[in-house]
């Protein structure tokens, strides 16, 4: 029988070991054996994390690696700490990895001959980085896992090195994210200089003895820079659409579904445990800054999502929009906000991965993900179209999907503090869902006038992509349809199972309790005292969800059929004045993106120091 | 403790960033990223420095000798490993970019936009 504390390091070690076995053994094993081995390994990891989730309950699981326990409150050891939010994210990553491994059973039918096991090995390496990042209680370890996750993701993005675009997207992804990570490391260095500690809880304790000054602010901003880059918060988001548009579809499912959200998790975890103490960063200050950043991110993501005709780029910008909503919810710094976002993230991961998976089927059939070029060409794939449309509706917040419940809870928490915030939630969900519905109507039903196919040079079209499977004549492999269907069902279950919401409510209360975390690291259990947030369906939530779904359908209908209507001229003027300059900012130029990163850091420094 | 090493770490970082922003060659850009990263080595070693301290090895020095902080040295070593991995990976990608696009100039590599 494995002890609960040992399950924490195992959560990192199992996929790491699996990656080694697959990378080495992949040279000799046949294709079927590699797929079976990868699936078994991913399932083992999910099982281990599920046991950990169950046994941790509403407390914390703590593991001091190598038995370096603290002596009289001092320790030189490295600690892993799991609460249900952290373990839940690791579990989400594990479940998505399992889905991805199954999805890609027949996906790369012609892997490079000598390295058949490389792709699943990289996926497992990526999983190890994500699980480690979600479970670590040590700031420097967080950086190392962050970079492990990053390096695996860059390699996966550029996996199809024979195609021109992926290598370019992976290069931008790698440079921007690594630069962000080095900012984080500079911040960690400053914190170590101030406190002489690297554990999150230990730094937090030591900081309580110092007064807040500009060093603390600078350290905070630098540490979160890397995490915000990973989370694709405006203006650190430029790498995301480029990487998502070109990465292999299974990789997009992981990047959008869980990696981006891990950046937000890291930001808030570090804020709560390290900086929320008596002499740290004041909550109102942080709330105002992050809610503003969240609103900006959500609006930019929604506008850019609506403008895309490249399906994967559209889904990528929809992720940016939703990350903005998640950031708003988390930045409220209330248990209710965290609980809503946790539910939203879990359900969004299922929906977004399902949408990418169905876009992968189109790419597979037609070698294109261009909404305009694919007009009417999906008529022979009704099942795929149904899944894609359902995903669009779920993204817009159709009850009873988990996205809808998560949105409702977060909205309610946000509306309590800022009454205008629910409008942002409704608009952003409607625009992102509407864009997907618009593409769905054009591609799978062929409705409306045929859109223009030429490209005026300001956008990425999505035609001429290399199909990821070389034989378009064969029937669609069953896993490529079963996996998105299962993911949508999981997202539905997240909204319908009442036990899930209440578990996340407990988890959110635990996550926002700094004392309980710090006490758990040093071996004491503290019961959180805050009231339990309410997570459940409400009339207001359902009405707002129905409103955003209806609005999404309206947006899509207006886009498909409304070209001759009187407001078309107004739309063109807005497009010229506002949208086109915004699109031009997404220039695909590495130097521009780095400039934006620096501008973002400078703005954050000024705002947080104010 | 003087502030000069901290300032030089910041300067090195900004020099790397400046190079990244103005770069006309992707290999040069990856090099600039490595420059930006080396600022983290300088910062970490500065943090652990103690005036008059010697290297933290106790095989031939008596216990109780004043030494510099070994933790930051371990961090810097880990950082070097991470940096080497990332640089190698990115340079590999630049090689592929050169093969597929025939150029490594970021100004010419703007196929992903809008």
UniProtKB/TrEMBL annotation, chain B:
It is found in: Cell membrane. Keywords: Cell membrane, Membrane, Transmembrane, Transmembrane helix. It is a multi-pass membrane protein. Its main location: membrane. Gene3D superfamilies: 1.10.287.3510. It comes from the Bacteria. Signal peptide: none annotated. The chain crosses the membrane at residues 71-94. Coiled coil: none annotated. Belongs to the CPA3 antiporters (TC 2.A.63) subunit C family. This is Sodium:proton antiporter. It comes from Streptomyces bluensis.
């Amino acid at each position: 029988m494995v002890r609960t504390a040992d399950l924490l390091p195992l959560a990192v070690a199992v996929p790491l070991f699996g990656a080694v076995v697959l990378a080495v053994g992949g040279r000799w094993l046949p294709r079927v054996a590699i797929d079976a081995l990868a699936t078994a390994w991913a399932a083992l990891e999910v099982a281990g994390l599920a046991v950990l989730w169950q046994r941790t309950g509403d407390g914390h699981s703590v593991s001091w690696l190598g038995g370096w326990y603290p002596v009289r409150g001092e320790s030189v050891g490295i600690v892993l700490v799991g609460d249900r939010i952290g373990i839940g994210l690791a579990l989400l990553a594990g479940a998505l990895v399992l889905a991805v491994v199954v999805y890609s059973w027949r996906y790369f039918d012609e892997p490079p001959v000598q390295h058949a096991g490389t792709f699943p090995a990289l996926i497992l390496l990526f999983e190890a980085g994500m699980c480690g990042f979600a479970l670590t209680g040590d700031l420097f370890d967080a950086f190392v896992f962050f970079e492990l996750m990053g390096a695996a993701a860059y390699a996966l993005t550029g996996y199809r090195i024979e195609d021109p675009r992926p290598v370019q997207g992976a290069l931008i992804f790698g440079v921007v994210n690594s630069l962000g990570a080095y900012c984080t490391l500079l911040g960690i260095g400053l914190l170590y200089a101030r406190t002489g500690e690297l554990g999150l809880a230990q730094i937090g304790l030591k900081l309580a003895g110092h007064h807040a000054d500009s060093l603390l602010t600078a350290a905070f901003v630098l540490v979160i820079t890397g995490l915000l880059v990973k989370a694709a918060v405006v203006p650190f988001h430029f790498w995301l659409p480029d990487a998502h548009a070109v990465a292999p579809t299974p990789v997009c499912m992981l990047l959008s579904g869980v990696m981006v959200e891990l950046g937000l998790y890291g930001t808030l975890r570090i804020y709560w445990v390290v900086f929320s103490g008596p002499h740290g960063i004041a909550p109102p200050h942080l709330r105002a800054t992050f809610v503003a950043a969240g609103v900006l991110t959500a609006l930019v993501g929604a506008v850019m999502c609506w403008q895309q005709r490249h399906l994967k780029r559209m889904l990528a910008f929809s992720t940016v929009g939703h990350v903005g909503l998640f950031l708003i919810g988390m930045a409220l710094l209330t248990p209710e906000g965290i609980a809503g976002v946790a539910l939203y993230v879990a359900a969004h991961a299922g929906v977004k991965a399902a949408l990418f998976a169905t876009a992968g089927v189109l790419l597979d059939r037609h070698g294109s993900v261009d909404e305009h070029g694919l007009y009417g060409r999906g008529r022979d794939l009704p099942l795929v179209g149904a899944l894609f449309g359902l995903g669009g509706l779920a993204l817009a917040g159709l009850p009873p999907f988990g996205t809808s419940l998560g949105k409702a809870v977060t909205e309610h928490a946000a509306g309590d503090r800022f009454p205008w915030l629910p409008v942002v939630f409704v608009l952003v969900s409607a625009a992102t869902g509407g864009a997907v519905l618009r593409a769905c109507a054009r591609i799978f039903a062929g409705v409306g006038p045929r859109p223009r196919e030429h490209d005026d040079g300001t956008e990425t079209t999505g035609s001429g992509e290399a199909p990821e499977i070389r034989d378009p004549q064969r029937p669609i492999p069953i896993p490529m349809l079963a996996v998105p269907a299962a993911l949508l069902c999981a997202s539905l279950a997240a909204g319908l199972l009442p036990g899930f919401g209440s578990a996340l409510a407990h988890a959110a209360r635990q996550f926002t309790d700094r004392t309980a975390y710090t006490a758990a690291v040093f071996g004491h259990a503290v019961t959180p005292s805050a009231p339990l947030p309410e997570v459940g369906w409400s009339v207001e939530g359902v009405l707002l969800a129905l409103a955003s779904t209806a609005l999404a359908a309206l947006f899509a209908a207006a886009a498909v059929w409304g070209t001759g209507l009187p407001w078309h001229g107004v739309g063109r003027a807005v497009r010229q004045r506002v949208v086109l300059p915004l699109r031009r900012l997404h220039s695909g130029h590495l130097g521009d993106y780095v400039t934006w990163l620096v501008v973002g850091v400078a703005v954050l420094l000024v705002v947080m120091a104010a | 403790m003087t502030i000069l090493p901290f300032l030089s770490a910041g300067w090195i970082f900004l020099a790397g960033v400046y190079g990244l922003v103005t770069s006309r060659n992707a290999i040069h850009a990856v090099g600039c990223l490595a420059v930006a990263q080396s600022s983290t080595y300088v910062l970490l070693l500065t943090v652990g420095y103690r005036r008059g301290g010697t290297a933290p090895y106790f095989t031939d020095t008596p216990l109780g000798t004043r030494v510099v902080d070994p933790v930051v040295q371990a961090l810097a070593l880990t950082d070097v490993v991470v940096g080497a991995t990332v640089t190698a990976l990115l340079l590999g990608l630049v090689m592929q970019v050169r093969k597929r696009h025939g150029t490594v100039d970021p100004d010419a590599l703007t196929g992903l936009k809008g």
